[in-house]
Specification:
- Helix 8 runs antiparallel to helix 9.
- By secondary structure, this protein is of the alpha/beta class.
- It has a six-stranded parallel sheet with strand order 1-4-3-2-5-6, with helices on both faces. A three-stranded antiparallel sheet has the order 7-8-9, covered by helices on one side.
- The two termini are 37 Å apart.
- A hairpin with a 2-residue loop joins strand 8 and strand 9.
- Bound molecules: adenosine monophosphate (AMP).
- The site of adenosine monophosphate has 17 residues, from helix 2 and strand 5.
- Adenosine monophosphate binds next to helix 2 and strand 5.
């Protein structure tokens, strides 16, 4: 496996792969890897022969007071996990390598869909995400890139960026990978104390309660939101941030849920912000 830290190393390795007729698959990550990330490697493998992953904690997508400074990292472990999963190249650049000369002047504006849900609480976040993803697409020119449904809004916006900016890359979205008890895997779960970890499960319980109610015939988004809040409210460490029933591509709130509507939720658990979602009737 190749570990590239510079653009030049990346360019040479990609040119060799392309020269050999291989399709390039990319899995962008911020490291501190878990099975959710690795499942995306497996997904990319279905559409590409040369598998690449990036490990880069993108400062542009963190707001003031967010957890950029304490974001977990374990490069050696991450590289070993990616190699064991059959990744051919890992790109682990410095911020200077990704943004030579400092923050970019031209960035990608996610539009109104970047200001709802998480975007309402994290101003500038999705602009930072789309900007780094566009830059990674520029550096890798991947044929296919895999992202997780766990970050539902991010996935929708990346697909929309690719469509609106005519980027030639196939975007795959992988299912949410969960711990055995149902908590969505996240690098940030490492921050949870044992009692917070127990309460964090309230997010999943809330989503399952909503799914159950929907399958039992309740479609009012108000009623479904109430069920979500009630269930999450049973878990003292959880501070509800938002819970919305939205259209899966336009992200607009719906009044009445239908199969394929997405329930998206964010909550603080202690000092850790967690997100999860559920596609209704999936
Ligand atoms: P991150 O390192 O948190 O930026 O995540 C990198 C990629 O992994 C993103 O596309 C995420 O959506 C995806 N991802 C994170 N957690 C999970 C999970 N539990 N299941 C599937 N994909 C995930």
């Amino acid at each position: 496996m190749i570990l590239a830290t510079t653009r030049q190393e990346l360019r040479e390795a990609l040119a060799a792969a392309r020269g050999a007729g291989q399709r390039v698959g990319l899995v962008p990550t911020m490291g501190s890897l878990h099975e959710g990330h690795l499942s995306l490697v497996d997904l990319a493998r279905t559409r590409a022969e040369f598998l690449t992953a990036s490990i880069f904690v993108n400062p542009l997508q963190f707001g003031v007071g967010e957890d950029l400074d304490r974001y977990p990292s374990d490069l050696e472990r991450d590289v070993a996990l990616l190699e064991a999963r059959g990744v051919d190249l890992v790109f682990h650049p410095s911020a200077e390598e990704v943004y030579p000369g400092g923050d970019p002047e031209v960035t990608v504006d996610p539009g109104s869909m970047g200001r709802v849900l998480c975007g309402a609480f994290r101003p500038g976040h999705f602009q930072g995400v789309l900007t780094v993803v566009a830059r990674l697409f520029g550096l890798f020119r991947p044929d296919v890139a895999a992202f997780g449904q766990k970050d539902f809004q991010q996935g929708v916006l990346i697909r929309r960026m690719v469509r609106d900016l005519e980027m030639e890359v196939e975007v795959l979205l992988g299912d949410i990978i969960r711990e055995e008890d149902g908590l969505a895997m996240s690098s940030r779960n490492a921050f949870l104390t044992p009692s917070e970890r127990a309460d964090a499960l309230g997010i999943r319980r809330g989503l399952l309660a909503v799914e159950g109610a929907f399958l039992a015939g309740i479609t009012s988004a108000d009623a479904l939101r109430g069920i979500l809040r009630d269930e999450m409210g049973r878990h003292p460490a959880l501070a509800f941030q938002y819970g919305e029933v939205v259209h899966p591509e336009r992200l607009e709130p719906v009044e009445s849920a239908s199969p394929g509507s997405v329930v998206a939720v964010a909550a603080h658990c202690g000092s850790t912000r967690l997100i999860d979602n559920q596609i209704l009737g999936a």
